[in-house]
């Protein structure tokens, strides 16, 4: 019973980011406070700790695996060689948390009935949609009780805030309880395809399609071009590959509708300098990799090294490179990072993934090529652990 309650709460509160940040001396760059360098204890961390206590035998069995122990040993070496060992140790703990969720993913889907999983996702998705729509309409954050779920204080006048413009009308891109609209979009994009492809959810079609509707709206109103394009491409692939949809005209009609809706939101003008900013960050990351090819700069220490570069863009030095692969290699180095990536790819190939499982992988790959939130932000990081645990569990039925 305790397991069911904790699993339900974890899924329900996963989109929230209520937490206590600890801003230490190294959490400031050029006098500016940087969240990425602040060790933080989130409400979801406490839930994961309680899940660890209740499921200790399963978790210890998982961590006794020689491959897992070898990976952790490599991470310890990385901490030892890190530019900022304190923050690297913090991210070492976060990776252990990631692996705990990974190890419990199968049990979560087995312990909780599909109906309750969908209910948890529906409640959290509806909450995010409600808050996001208010932010979009009012062009500022709501605060009040929403502050305790992680909503940031935002308005159109906030420096660096994400905006969108349609026919001369400027909007605040909704953040929900996330750190950025792109993070919100990626989170619900991955959940969309998890629910879409998980066979057992078909027992509750009303709940399933309601969640798919809510999550797709969140992707669109985020105005995240990468997430919207990924949504369009992968949904089209799903419709083409799904043999149950025998009517070709039906498939074509659905793709056309998605294409038209996508064009409406893609036509919105967002940050005109976003490409230039991302190119600058990618150049910085390549330089960092060349400077520290063997050991990397250390887990979570990327911004310490990047702060040494000059930037044409105000306060942009406190943003990680918008590519999870470059970020990972920058921090882990070519040897350790390359080995860990090889082990992951090898596992994916060995499992002979289904079409639906590959769709989930592609969501992370496509969006990860253009953003960093899968490795840097609490909600996306833990969701990726859950989904990867689902994918690499042999017995879970996914289309």
TrEMBL record:
The chain crosses the membrane at residues 42-60, 67-83, 89-105, 117-137, 178-198, 210-241, 253-274, 324-345, 357-375. It comes from the Bacteria. The keyword Transmembrane applies. Keywords: Membrane, Transmembrane, Transmembrane helix. GO terms for cellular component: membrane. Signal peptide: none annotated. InterPro entries: WaaL-like (IPR051533). Coiled coil: none annotated. This is O-antigen ligase-related protein.
């Amino acid at each position: 019973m305790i397991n069911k309650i904790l699993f339900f709460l974890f899924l329900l509160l996963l989109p929230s980011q209520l937490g206590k940040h600890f801003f230490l001396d190294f959490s400031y760059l050029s006098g500016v406070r940087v969240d990425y360098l602040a060790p933080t204890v989130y409400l979801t961390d406490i839930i994961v700790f309680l899940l660890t206590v209740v499921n200790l035998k399963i978790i210890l069995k998982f961590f006794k695996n020689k491959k897992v122990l070898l990976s952790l040993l490599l991470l310890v070496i990385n901490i030892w060689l890190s530019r900022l060992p304190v923050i690297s140790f913090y991210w070492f703990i976060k990776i252990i948390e990631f692996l705990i969720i990974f190890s419990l993913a199968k049990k979560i889907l087995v312990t909780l009935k599909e109906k309750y999983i969908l209910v948890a996702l529906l409640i959290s998705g509806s909450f995010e949609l409600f808050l996001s729509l208010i932010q979009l309409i009012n062009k500022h954050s709501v605060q009040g009780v929403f502050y305790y779920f992680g909503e940031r204080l935002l308005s159109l006048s906030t420096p660096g805030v994400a905006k969108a413009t349609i026919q001369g009308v400027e909007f605040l891109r909704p953040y929900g309880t996330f750190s950025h609209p792109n993070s919100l979009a990626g989170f619900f994009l991955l959940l969309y395809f998890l629910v879409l492809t998980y066979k057992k959810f078909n027992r509750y079609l009303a709940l399933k399609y309601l969640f798919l509707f809510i999550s797709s709206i969140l992707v669109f109103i985020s105005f995240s071009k990468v997430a919207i394009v990924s949504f369009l491409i992968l949904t089209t692939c799903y419709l083409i590959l799904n043999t149950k949809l025998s009517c070709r005209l039906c498939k074509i009609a659905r793709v056309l509708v998605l294409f038209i809706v996508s064009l409406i939101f893609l036509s919105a003008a967002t940050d005109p300098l976003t490409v230039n900013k991302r190119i600058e960050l990618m150049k910085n990351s390549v330089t960092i990799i060349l400077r520290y090819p063997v050991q990397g700069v250390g887990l979570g220490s990327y911004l310490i090294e990047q702060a040494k570069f000059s930037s044409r863009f105000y306060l942009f030095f406190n943003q990680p490179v918008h590519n999870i692969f470059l970020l990972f290699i920058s921090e882990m180095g070519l040897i350790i990072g390359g080995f860990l990536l090889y082990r992951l790819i090898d596992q994916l190939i060995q499992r002979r993934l289904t079409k639906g499982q590959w769709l989930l992988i592609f969501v992370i790959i496509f969006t990860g090529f253009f953003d960093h939130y899968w490795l840097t932000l609490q909600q996306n990081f833990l969701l990726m652990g859950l989904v990867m645990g689902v994918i690499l569990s042999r017995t879970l039925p996914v289309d």
